[in-house]
Design goal:
Order of helices and strands: EEHHEEH
Low-confidence stretches: none
Mean pLDDT: 92
Distance between the termini: 34 Å
Number of helices: 3
Radius of gyration: 12 Å
Number of strands: 4
Shape: globular
Strand order of the largest sheet: 1-2-4-3
Structural class: alpha+beta
Length: about 70
């Protein structure tokens, strides 16, 4: 299962989020555990709010380029 809907919001698996962002799957898990992105633990797998992980990646890209938001 790559995605689930919770309260009408799309959550994607950490594996899928890693493919979407280029981050390592372990880093996605770290973001989830630390509460840096909205996520849910389903069984033993993390599911992260799709829009939040994309926003997080965009913010990282802006930091890399020296762009302040």
């Amino acid at each position: 299962m790559d995605e689930i809907l919770i309260e009408e919001k799309r959550y994607v698996s950490s594996k899928r989020a890693a493919k979407m962002t280029g981050y390592a799957k372990d880093y996605i898990g770290q973001l989830c555990r630390e509460g840096r992105v909205p996520a849910r633990l389903v069984g033993r797998s993390w599911y992260v709010l799709e829009t939040a992980i994309q926003d997080h990646r965009l913010a990282d890209k802006k930091k890399e380029q020296g762009i302040e938001s």
